[in-house]
Write the structure tokens for this entry.
Amino acid sequence: MLAYTLLILLAGGLQALAAHVQVTWDIGYLNISRDGLSTWQAIGANGQLPIPPIYVTQGDILELTAINHLDKPVTLHTHGLFQRNSSYYDGAGMVTECGIPPGSQFTYIIETRNQSGTHWVHSHYGPEAIDGLRAALVIRDLDPKLLDEYDEDVLLTLEDWGQEPSNAMLERMKTTSLGRHPNYPSVLINGINANFSQPIRFLPGRRYRLRVVSMSFTYWFKVRLPGHAMQVIEADGIHSRPSAVDGLDLCPGQRYSVIITARESLEFNYALNVTFHSNFLARKPGLNPRYHHVPIVYRKDAPVKTFPLIEDHEVKWADEYAMEPQDKQMLLEPVDQHIVLNVKAPNRNTSISAHAYGDYAYAPVPVPPLYTALTTGDMALSPSVYAPQLNAIILKHNHVVELELRNSFAPIMHTYHSHGHAFQVVESGLAKINSSIPVKRFKGRYPMRRDTITLAAGQYVRVRIKADNPGVWYQHCHQEQHNLSGMAFTFIEAPDVMQQTLRVPQEMLEFCRILGHPTQGNSAGHFGSDMTGIDLPLAINGTANSITGT
């Protein structure tokens, strides 16, 4: 359901037309076969899957209502939006809220005044998003210079889709060596089996903004359109200076926009190549990697132009280290706080399938950490009020924070997604014991920003943020199996400031009461450091982490 209430808004000294955009998701179970191969109980909205994309214009207020007809709580996270001054609307289950109880409904108020670009919405309560509760979110730009760069918007969503419900898959992973992924999922392009991708019509000479959204939760995608030049102009909602690329390589959760100018001739049609790939599934012809094509149609009866095969290393892939943000934000410095976190993976001789960014496998606690930060006064600045399994890191207001994530020993790729921030991408390289060997560093004067990045096996990445968004922000691997097994930590950002500026809607506190969760005190619902009633955290062995600076 979509309704518009128009109002006049002054933005940047210019008069712009804004709207309250009301979208309702009636969330429930569906027995459906999305790939034509297997039928199982998925989760959709308004009786359908895929859930249609949401389109708004920068400056609009999105009122996203979730009606919960599941038998468990639900939340909605707007992936890529910073929720400035409204951390409680971030949708991270048992981090910023307790969830919407079964039979209840709630409206998230999403401000888009200071953001635009390509994003998406998904549940952030357990594995509900894996089971289908996800959709693209496009915030159209107001900047006339950017609008002049293209004639038409084209959305391309990429998804992995399992052969069984998430709970069955996750249970089997617990008994699989090293928690490895035991099967090969299907690929969905714009919501349907990629083997039957719907054509995209190109008109000669027309300029298209292709928005590519990886709504995957486990696997990577590569996208190329041979015979056409690409100019990348956006990564994860951050507009960049146009730069020529041959293709895109997206990890779970990433987004790109590229400008593609259609050819002048109607002689041929073309194929947009989409490659599914993973380094933690065994290579198997037809399954990993897997190749799909989206028809690019200039003329209905034209033949498809063929091109010689080229190796990946010959392709100029979009590279965040070579990109620059359109707003020319300088490197944040000096650094006030330097954090080093080592990826910790299961030992080969244990049945535990947990992963971790912190010293412990992340696990939810009775009181969401946002509520602990808001109700414990000066103690909110002390780690003692946050249970160890939250891997809580306290950030001081407006401090520059450098985060180094090290994947020294894990044999597989991981990802890092930040709620509440787009980080500056500073450096990556080889991760050795107690040392780092830079291989890539941002070029030029202005490091690119984004909110999701790949952490390759045996490598580290170094990013920076400014702690100027008071709230509690979930930080995690976007491979959902790893996230759910504990690969996460939390930024407790400026708790002294958030106590003065954030006011949680009473309805959200009432939901906690219904679900049996306290909304005050430390992680256990007590005051001080008494954690009675909380399970002992699961410690994951590995190289020690470090935090320096205050």
